[in-house]
Amino acid sequence: MQHNPIQIVIVDDHPMVIEGLKTLLSDDVRVTVKTHFINGTDTLAFLKNNTVDVILLDVNLPDISGVDMVTKILNLRANVGIIGLSTYSEPSIINQMIKNGVKGYLLKNATADELVNAITQVHQGNFYFGSEVQKILADSVTQESRDLPKLTRREKHVLKLIAEGKTTNTIAEELFISPLTVETHRRNLMQKLEVSNAASLIKIAVEKKLI
Amino acid sequence: MQHNPIQIVIVDDHPMVIEGLKTLLSDDVRVTVKTHFINGTDTLAFLKNNTVDVILLDVNLPDISGVDMVTKILNLRANVGIIGLSTYSEPSIINQMIKNGVKGYLLKNATADELVNAITQVHQGNFYFGSEVQKILADSVTQESRDLPKLTRREKHVLKLIAEGKTTNTIAEELFISPLTVETHRRNLMQKLEVSNAASLIKIAVEKKLI
DNA sequence: TTTTTTCTACTGGTTTTCCAGTATATTGAT
DNA sequence: ATCAATATACTGGAAAACCAGTAGAAAAAA
Description:
Oligomer: homodimer
CATH class of the largest domain in chain A: Alpha Beta
Structural class of chain A: alpha/beta
CATH topology of the largest domain in chain A: Rossmann fold
């Protein structure tokens, strides 16, 4: 393990944030801010000819969305570690960013310690997510299966089987009940979940991780 | 930040692994192995009356599955950090464990450094996943959208609309094509994706994140 | 215990999907 | 320019899903 400082690049369209980050990181010998950019295009252009260890990437750039930036950056430089940065915290965006390959995610109120810790971890190939971000992610997971409790046990079971692509008759056989009963459950499910066909029903089931 | 050693508990049904872990950790003053267990029941009983910082949890216990253990442990002690341990690496299990709340996951060939690093990070409330585990997770994500490229652009579009719960006629109107054409696309989709009804089709679409 | 909810089951009718085969115009690639 | 892939469209028939209303038995809650 070498002890050269970790080369980072800051990408954020707010000069204030850039300066803030630079100040926070200036005291630490383990990290060097190589340069900074205020938009996605310039960043990508730079990365075509330069290497860097870790990128601090604001998710709200004027030209390219944060989610797209992640894919584009990783296409250019697969080994760069990306840490998402944002002031607010939308679970869906964070989720997407992670799916696309960010290794870390921080809110902008992160302390210098957190920042350095995140950079170090991400540089080593590990994940780092601030505690607030973790809480948000945890909430969005539990939320997913929240309005399902409206359903009875039997209904959930039937929904699961429907979502598995089984026909009414198959389900009936499997549960030792009449196909007509299964139909009734199906109808009640559709009513409760406020949809009008099996398609939407399955969509919900899969989304809520019932299957 | 206090400097009391992190209290950990090892849960593994292989005495050899337990001894190995103890040896690896014995040199490090930051970590103390409080005790160990060879099954889930004893571990849970212990946790009812004792606190602990981090648990190293083998996923293949004789009595309770690793996935269930995670939920049970967190129900008892929400603040304990759990690090999953296994020799092999099944993406689906790792995914489930993470969903249930493990903060870290290591393969059993992890080095002492990795081990201590994982324990420290997890204790601080952060995630830690060994590089092999990350690779596995990344693969399972990319795999998701792999066999979709078989589909043509139009087919993907139609699939998306089907998955949104729209009927053939609605889709036809939306795309300014004949309902019969939509039917054909639907059939081709089912053939290509090797399923026999719209339900399974949607399931796949949602799972592969097409929508 | 009584009431409510859940699970079960039916009738009867409409709409949609599913299956199999065929066919032509338009793109895209070599 | 030609060949392959794609998108388009049809016929006709079988199966399944969808809609609306009803209702008894079992289980859970009051």
